[in-house]
Amino acid sequence: MPQHDAASSRRSKHINQYKLIELHATTLVLERGYSLVTVEEIAQAAGVSKRTFFNYFQNKQQAVLGTGPRRPTEEEEQRFLTTVHPDLPLAVLRLCTNAALSPEHDLYFDAATQRRRKAIIDQDPALFHEFMSRVHNLHPHFESLIVRYLEAHPNQRRTALSLEVEASLLCNLSFAAMRAAANSNENFLAPEELRALGEQMLQGIRHIA
Questions:
Q1: Which residues, given as ranges, of the chain have pLDDT below 50?
Q2: Which of 5, 39, 106, 141 is the most exposed place for a label (fewest CB within 10 A)?
Q3: How far apart are CA 26 and CA 118, in angstroms?
């Protein structure tokens, strides 16, 4: 088998196994409740070992609610910091959305799994708030990154407020656009569609403001 075909086959197998674990994790939790389902039970239902489960997910919450946002890579941060962005709010939004919904997510998206996750959250709002705390914990990192950008490119500043306040405004604007996109459609859009909708929401917020 050619090398690229073998790599493609391994990738396909990885994606399918990932989705299978998510399917059983969300199904079991929806049926029995989050606290009553163990990693061992999810792994058994998916036909994998506990060790294999942890090759795909760090913990039960990730398998049930999704991996969630991540910090930008060093390469992504350097690209953001060294580029003079003609539209800084849009650049910040893309930095944030790529951390929350990187193109990698497109391959793993499954609408049925997202519907089950929505039902789980509706049943257990406390679980959702715990998950969202991971999003809010990233705010200081993004704000610090934006401060560094504004220090390096002072001509990009648009207010007379402090660097920290302006960075906070830019960060909050991006997260507001992302939330608006996520809340505007009940059809569980794929990540690619959500990223595009987030940019539309940003433009809408600008027009309203």
A1: 1
A2: 5
A3: 10
